[in-house]
Design a protein that fits this description.
Layout: H1 2-10, H2 13-32, E1 44-49, E2 52-73, E3 79-84, E4 91-92, E5 97-101, H3 104-139, H4 145-178, E6 180-182, E7 187-189, E8 199-200, E9 209-224, H5 225-233, H6 240-246, E10 251-254, E11 265-269, E12 279-287, E13 298-314, E14 319-321, E15 324-330, E16 336-346, E17 350-355, E18 362-364, E19 378-382, H7 384-390
Parallel strand pairs: 1-19
Antiparallel strand pairs: 1-18, 2-9, 2-13, 3-5, 3-8, 4-7, 5-6, 7-9, 9-12, 10-13, 11-12, 13-17, 14-15, 15-16, 16-17
């Protein structure tokens, strides 16, 4: 090769160009004579044959929790806050004192009203005396009966004034009572935004506090139209009320993914779908004797489903594209093809498939991230029983 290069350099330019072309041909021939590397063998991937069997699955819906009773505690009269008898978060019973508003103004109003009653009763007595004085005089034709009629009218007016004064006493006494704010229901005290000395009134934007009765909790959640139709079809009955009676108890999954100890019951369904969200609201009730749950908690309501002929696959055998779930099926030629499936329910590890797969089909269990449609694999058969036993419901 070196001798050939030296000869080309010593020749004329045209000959030099020809030599370069000859060298390129020689190098290409050498490269083409080298053996091409063999293709990599098909990947060995676990493959499971699909089976069907009865199963229990569940659906979960985000929920917000509220106490059965949530009461804004507001003052009925205005005044300076004199005492606060409870602290935030305390449990109180119905009728227990919570706040005291300075009663001095209203006590004086009550005293004034009582004085007005005494004055009105005195006027009534005076009218009574005048009427009694004129009665025999009219009977003896000494004075005109017009005077007696006038006296009777004055007496009735004085009597009405007494009743009005007594009503004012009652109103003033009620206002004095309103200066002591009692708990309307039993429950837990919420935040208290006002401090002693603050001026409060019934027109304030903020209440004195919020009192929550949390012995029973309401869990509000929503279903899409499709889920609602499926829910109705699962239970016997002609009306929604009859179907709700057949619905099994529901679970509450808390924010830390633990299950609340008490089971709940779906009690009501809203009368119409929300036009904006396309969902309808449900309300489930959970007993909460220990007060563990509070208003404002969030969680998920879990509804169980009984499937008579379920196709169950591991979640790790699936992948998602644009909110659709797929699996790779394996044909007799060991070629794989992606296939969309419909999920009817799930557990922590498994999917229950309602459409897209049939018993007897084979799917790739893992390693799907590197596969493409038409790829050839070397199947490593795995029994469905061993897979499902390793991933309990």
């Amino acid at each position: 090769m070196e001798l050939l290069l030296k000869k080309m350099i010593t020749r004329k330019p045209l000959a030099y160009l020809s030599g370069i072309l000859m060298l390129a041909v020689v190098l290409y021939s050498c490269a083409s004579n080298q053996a091409a590397p063999p293709p990599p063998p098909p990947p060995q991937l676990p493959v499971m044959a699909i089976t069907s069997a009865p199963a229990t699955t569940y659906l979960e819906f985000p929920a917000s929790l509220e106490g059965k009773v949530n009461v804004d505690v507001r003052p009925q009269v205005s005044g300076y806050l004199e005492k606060i008898f409870v602290d935030e978060g305390a449990y109180v019973k119905a009728g227990q004192p919570l706040f005291k508003i300075n009663p001095q103004v209203y006590a004086e109003q009550l005293n004034s009203a009582n004085s007005n009653v005494l004055a009105a009763e005195a006027n009534m007595d005076k009218a009574q005396v005048e009427m009694d004085r004129l009665a025999p005089l009219v009977a003896n034709n000494v004075v005109s009966d017009v005077q007696l009629k006038t006296a009777k009218a004055n007496y009735e007016a004085a009597k009405a004034a007494v009743a009005q004064a007594k009503a004012a006493v009652g109103s003033a006494r009620i206002n004095v009572g309103y200066t002591l704010v009692n708990a309307p229901v039993s429950g837990y005290i919420g935040r208290i935004p006002y401090k002693i000395g603050a001026l409060v009134g019934n027109n304030d934007e903020q209440p004195l506090t919020v009192l929550s009765d949390v012995r029973e909790m309401y869990a509000y959640f929503s279903m899409s139209e499709a889920d609602f139709i499926a829910f109705k079809n699962n239970f016997a009955g002609k009306t929604i009320e009859e179907k709700l009676k057949q619905a099994p108890p529901v679970e509450l999954i808390l924010a830390d993914n633990t299950s609340f100890a008490e089971k709940g019951k779906i009690e009501t369904i809203e009368g119409q779908f929300n036009k904006t969200t396309g969902a309808i609201s449900f309300r489930a009730t959970f007993p909460n004797a220990g007060g563990i749950l509070r208003t404002g908690n969030t969680g998920k309501v879990r509804l169980t489903q009984q499937l008579t002929d379920a196709i169950t696959i591991p979640q790790e055998a699936t992948f998602e594209i644009q909110d659709k779930v797929f699996v790779y099926t394996v044909a007799d030629s060991n070629k794989v093809a992606s296939k969309p499936i419909t999920i009817a329910g799930k557990t922590a590890n498994l999917y229950f498939v309602s459409d897209g797969l049939k018993a007897g089909e084979k799917i790739v269990l893992s390693g799907t991230g590197s596969l493409k449609d038409g790829a050839v694999i070397t199947p490593q058969p795995v029994s469905a029983d061993s897979v499902l036993k390793s991933k309990p419901l």
